[in-house]
Write a structure and sequence with these properties.
This protein has about 260 residues and is mostly helical. It has 9 helices and no strands. Helix 1 crosses helix 4 and helix 7 packs across helix 8. The chain is globular.
């Protein structure tokens, strides 16, 4: 029996983008879905299960608890969260699957864009409208979303005491940080087909694969270590000859210290 959640379809991702576009009409800082995809992946493999009411306001903003804000109404909020939860389950299942290659249909496949490549497919007149505007590299926005979580919940990504585990963590985060940087290598590949100009370098594509495996490693690392355990510190007791804390006026040794 296949227990994998029903994956989001292209029309589902289109609907998510439509909702985000609507939110952006009221707040131009609302991110694109690719950024949200990176945030979601980081939250899935975060050491602590960060509650939705903790991360959602940071990602999209919001009003009072229980309100529809920043969504247009409660129906739009519920629809977004339903799609978000389906994608969450899909990503978690993929990261927990035993895969030998990223070509496996069970492997995690981030929903990312090649904005530069998409621009090259436009007619010259439409392309000229963008002028010299800086465009993100392939999967760069996804990596920025992932690192947004790392940077905003640093205590959940602090290096473990075990040296080998700490090195594992550093190597995985380094692979993700590399994807947040611009692709400056010569483009030789085109995700849009052989009849379109190349927009992605081979080095970038290899780095993308490394970053996906890094997400797998982070998921496994924190699952194996488990959540952080807060140190319980016992309150210091007064000295035997100090006045008792109860206010009796007696020395501690003659009052509560004798119990």
């Amino acid at each position: 029996m296949n227990d994998r959640p029903f994956p989001l379809q292209p029309e589902d991702f289109d609907e998510l983008e439509t909702i985000l576009d609507d939110l952006r009409r009221r707040d131009d800082e609302i991110p694109q879905w690719e950024f949200c995809e990176g945030v979601l992946a980081a939250l899935v493999c975060c050491r602590r299960a960060v509650p939705q009411d903790e991360y959602l306001p940071m990602l999209l903003g919001g009003g009072e608890p229980g309100s529809a804000a920043p969504f247009a109404d409660l129906a739009q909020r519920e629809r977004f969260l339903a799609l978000w939860q389906r994608r969450w389950q899909e990503v978690a299942a993929a990261l927990d699957a035993e895969v030998e290659t990223l070509e496996d249909e069970a492997a995690y496949q981030p929903e990312v864009m090649d904005v530069r490549g998409a621009l090259l497919t436009l007619p010259p007149a439409e392309r000229a409208a963008y002028g010299d505007e800086a465009l993100p590299s392939f999967a760069q926005v996804w990596a920025l979303g992932f690192m947004y979580v790392v940077e905003n919940w640093p205590e959940e990504w602090a290096a473990p005491r075990d040296k080998e585990a700490a090195e594992w963590l550093d190597a995985s985060l380094d692979a993700m940080v590399a994807m947040t940087e611009d692709d400056r290598a010569e483009p030789t590949l085109s995700p849009f087909g052989d009849d379109t100009p190349p927009s992605v370098s081979l080095a970038r594509l290899n780095a993308f694969g490394d970053a996906i495996w890094a997400v797998y490693d982070l998921r496994e690392l924190w699952k194996s270590i488990g959540p952080r355990v807060e140190t319980v510190r016992k309150a210091a007791e007064p000295g035997r000859n100090d006045l008792c804390h109860c206010g009796s006026g007696k020395k501690y040794k003659k009052c509560h210290g004798s119990i």
